[in-house]
Amino acid sequence: MAVGYRRLLGDPSFSVGIVAVAVSAVVLGMVPLTLVLGSPGRRLADGAVLAAAFGIGNALGVPSQGLLIARFPTRLVLLASTVASCTLLAAVAVVPAGGVRVALLTGAGLTFPAGAAAVRAAVPVAFRRPADRPGAYALLSVAFQAGLATGPVAAGAIAVSDLRPVALVVAAGLLAAAGVLLVASMRLPVVVEGAHPGRVGRLDVPAFVRVVAIAAALGVASGSLTVIVPTTLRHAGVVGVSGAVLGALAVGEAVGALVVGAVRSPRSPRRRLLVALTLIAIGDAVLGFTADPVLLTVVVFGIGMVSSPAAIVLSTVLDDVVPSSFLASTYGFVVTAGVGGAAIGTGAGGLLSSVADDGPVVLAVLAATAAVALGATTARGPAR
Questions:
Q1: Any alpha helices (H) in the chain, and if so which ranges?
Q2: What is this structure's pTM?
Q3: Inter-residue contact 61 to 110 (CB < 8 Å)
Q4: Does residue 124 or residue 44 have the better pLDDT?
Q5: Are the beta carbons of 317 and 382 closer than 8 angstroms?
Q6: For all residues of the chain together, what is the average pLDDT?
Q7: Rama region for 237: left / alpha / beta (φ>0; ψ in -120 to 50; rest)
């Protein structure tokens, strides 16, 4: 397993791109919890709305940037989007609460650089042997998902430190570093081996729609954790450990993705997705009925460990249902669905927690019910 991953990371463009995706994903995961924990008093809903504005803006920005990348040099699009997003994020820190902050955060999300889509589109070019692709997608998944879930750890640490007033400025600085790496990765050589594995012909629209729907639902589940965990821990009086508990999601996703990327499963994509969704539903149901930080950490770790294999399955399926020339834009839609779903999960979770007497239980039961419903509708599978 180690040898295979070491060979994939020997491609300088891919390895630098992976680091860039990880750093940018940390920012993507850091901003929502920073906004939630920064809410005045006990009004988590205010921060959740701001977080949702950022996430929805990002969901709209990824496909828009995909269209721009199709017409202009990738490096130029990534550079311009990085500068714009960093500027808007930093501006939020000095603007008082109100509609202006919502507009700035929406703009910051809209211009957030679509690094994951750019790196994903390069995978079939850099590694043309079908046997290499699951490992490459696993590394990309680890970089993106682990970074996305590691962000709350940074947000939680900053929230209890002297840097709290400038938390979004710190996020902007990290994003600037990620943008520099992304632009650099687009200029490095790639290692090309074997025959091209991409699909030719027309887009399999029904299968692609199912992939997008599943990605969105997984995003809702992930986004709801941003509210479920701190709400549960706040009731127990230990909200300060929220970031650390949510960080277990990153570790679980990394472990699950690396195992799946290195081992070929005889099961169909449909069966693997059904198993993952069932386990996620069980984990979500448990979250609302315990405030023990240790048990919450274990459950969140387990959810992460089964979530990342589902994400890898979806990425692999794209090569079977999408023509090679459309990989960048269609992967952008999958990322958009996931990020937009996370924003919806965060926003809906914040609103529910503010109106329900026992918010964590309500949120957890709803999340588990949604996962079960998704599992039932996925019975046909995103691919044969």
A1: 2-8, 12-37, 44-71, 74-92, 99-110, 115-126, 133-141, 147-159, 167-185, 205-235, 242-262, 269-287, 293-321, 327-355, 359-377
A2: 0.70
A3: yes
A4: 124
A5: yes
A6: 78
A7: left
pLDDT tens string 324-375: 667 767 887 887 787 777 777 777 777 766 665 555 555 565 565 565 555 5
Distance CA 171, CA 154 (A): 9
Residue 356 has a pLDDT of 56
Cα gap 47→173, rounded to integer Å: 21
Which phi and psi (to 5°) does residue 323 adopt? -60, 150
Choose among 22, 32, 28, 27: nearest CA to 242: 32
**Residues in CB range of 237: below 8 A, 6 or more apart:** none
DSSP element (H, E) containing 197: none
Place of tokens 């039961």: 365
- What string of DSSP letters covers 224-245? HHHHHHHHHHHHTT-GGGHHHH
Q: How is residue 108 written in tokens?
A: 């910051």
pLDDT the model gives residue 353: 65
Residue with tokens 């991409």: 198
Tokens of 133: 């692709």
The more confidently predicted of residues 325 and 198 is: 325
Alpha-carbon distance of 228 to 234, in angstroms, equals 10
Mean per-residue pLDDT, 75-86: 93
Given a contact cutoff of 8 angstroms between Cβ atoms, the answer to whether 102 and 50 are in contact is yes
CA–CA gap between residue 222 and residue 335 (Å, rounded): 13
The Cα 189–Cα 13 span in angstroms is 6
What is the DSSP code string of 258-284? HHHHHS--SS-HHHHHHHHHHHHHHHH
**Which of 62-66, 87-91, 208-212, 378-382 is the least confident region?**
378-382
DSSP assignment of 279-320: HHHHHHHHHTT---HHHHHHHHHHHHHHHHHHHHHHHHHHHH
pLDDT of residue 180: 94
Residues 30, 169: Cα–Cα separation, whole Å: 12
End-to-end CA distance of the chain: 27
266 pLDDT higher than 90: no
3-state DSSP call for residue 199?
A: strand
